[in-house]
């Protein structure tokens, strides 16, 4: 039994079916995909979640090991640039997957030996990746005991620089504050604050720039469609519109699930592809796990604008990152003070992330589908939270973001046909992600990135998969999470 049909749940279901298990997936929404959402309007198709595929080898392994190869199922396109960056002083940089070319671009953009600085940082990031991939990303963790065992591997431990933050790592290698700001942005890939996130997260830019950024022709929603088809091929029963309200267990372990319509489905294994806090507080009472989660810092969320735009914008990249103008380059402090403050507050002048695929499948001819994302405090009250349900707040903030886009040279003006707004409250309502925290818990803190809720629960037969559990959020990591869970469950 799999609870939730996000990417982690679907890939886990397929792997378990390949292993001989009879698998049913229950999904409360009318469609599969979880946070990999889709909005269609007036001939436009908007991905409402991830807009970039990284680590394509993870998906290649999955499709090869479960049936037809990736390239026969999905049209994966490499991006160059992966993203176009514009810093506060107007300097621009285009990221790419060729390390030598990227070093040249860094030198051209910043001068002053920035390319050599980047090369030294890149070498350290590569060491961190090598030290962490197998034991921390592609394997199950056993809480603090895993870190204790890892501490005996002194060279690997030295590589990940325990006790140093991502900002500290960037500062140690990179003299140019704009280049430090570039690195610090990657903390948001785990919903974290670069001032508190561990230096080990240098592996995040390494993975993106080493293996490239990719786009799925037709939109990333195609991945969920392909996984649903793969489920059908292997006899997985996928029940949408079916909400699980309780995971049942006895002294020996899980026994099944209860449904909102009063039904019950028996199971000797339950894989929960749901927010870990929701699982341990609402679906099954595990007080020790719930207490541990309350001691963590929840991840940030996102505020999204989906814009239907008439006409074409010359020179617009697939991904554009616009740092606030007039701000001291490299200073992310104001943004993260707002997002993680007590209480959290909407960021008045945030970094703007703009995704505009040049793909006829997602827009009418002669138009553009704009996805605009900013970092945002999660839904709620208190530290790191904003009540996005406050009447008028979402529309006022959407107006402000359109103003900020215009100030930075990306004004749709009278070309704007419509806008759709998605707040952290909307994400919470749609996916049961508590507070709309995209990644469950953040990586804020020296050990936080390595101590996420484990894939194997203390309840026999209960396993967790997805962005709020080990090894973390993002399409490749939740796919690795599913691989780990299938290995823990074993063949039928």
From TrEMBL:
InterPro entries: Amino_oxidase, Carotenoid/retinoid_OxRdtase, FAD/NAD-bd_sf. Keywords: Carotenoid biosynthesis, Oxidoreductase. Pathway: Carotenoid biosynthesis. Pfam families: Amino_oxidase. The keyword DNA-binding does not apply. The keyword tRNA processing does not apply. Residues 7-355 form the Amine oxidase domain. It comes from the Bacteria. Belongs to the carotenoid/retinoid oxidoreductase family. This is Phytoene desaturase family protein. It comes from Cryptosporangium minutisporangium. The lineage of its organism: Bacteria, Bacillati, Actinomycetota, Actinomycetes, Cryptosporangiales.
